Every structure is written in structure tokens, then in C-alpha cells.
Amino acid sequence: MGIFDNMRKPKGKLGEIQLKSMNKEHTPISLWVLKHLDIKETDTILDIGCGGGININRMAEHAKKVYGVDYSEKSVKISKEVNDDLIKKGIVEISQGNVQSLEFEDESFDIVTAFETVYFWPDIEKCFGEVKRVLKPGGKFMIGMESNGSDNIPMKISEKLIDMNVYND
User: Fold this and answer.
1) 57, 96, 120, 140: which has the fewest Cβ within 10 Å?
2) How many CB atoms sit inside 10 A of residue 73's CB?
3) What separation in angstroms does the CA of 10 have from each of 7, 49, 134?
4) This prediction's pTM
């Protein structure tokens, strides 16, 4: 596993450092996205690629229930630590899983979020199909990304170093 693979699927001590850094570094885009979501007390939310878990924590302040899923064991561990109190209260559930085959019933969620993660989703059409399947009719799917990919040189360089796709508008 190369050093840059920890951005894709965090592992070990370096992955833990990466996740804690993501919680901090992604805050500006995350707060912007959350400001535009209009979360209601009755909403059930799924955060795909929950990473370090901070966005689950933020959304749980307003929602009925928030689920997080990530395919990295380390991400699940850190997300559970960050949300320990909310898990104990039954407001949050976090599990390991894959966006290509989400283990949730059809039409389960009012909102599905993906913060800085769609870059890493294989077969994006299939993944979006899974999101559509678990999203209630009229629900919202919000993707938070720091760049639209068209003019961001660091993201273009990252795309070459890491197995990822930088999408444009």
C-alpha cells in the first residue's frame, strides 16, 4: 500500500492520522454543504464514506437518526470513537460497507451525503444507482467536494498518484 492509498482507504497509524486530519481539513466544505441541507428533526440520513465521522456528529445534532458507512475498518473505528455518545443514545449507527452494495432497505433515507469520497467510487453509475435505491422519493443526495475538477491542479496531480477520478461539472 502506497503512502497516498491512505486517502482512499485509511489503514494503520498513518490512516488514523489521515482521518483526524480530514475531519479538520474538510470542515469548510462540510459546513457549507450542511448549511444547504436543511436537515429536519424527522430526517434519517446516510453518510457514505463517513471517514473520520465528524460530519455524522454534525448532522446528528438536527436529525432523527444518522447512519455512517465506510469500507475502511480504520474509518469505522475512528467514526465510532468520534460518535460514541450518540451511538450509545441510539441516534447514530456506523458500519463497514461498500457503496456498490449498500446493506439498507429500499427508500430508507431522507438524505444521503458523500463528503470528499466520490473520487474513489468505482463504477460511479452503479454507486449512484445504489444511492437512488436507498433514497426515499423526493429525498436529497448531496455530494461535497472541494473542486469541480476543471481547474484544480493539485487534484489533477492527485488523480495521477492515487486510484481516483476527479469529476468536473
Assistant:
1) 96
2) 13
3) 6, 11, 26
4) 0.79
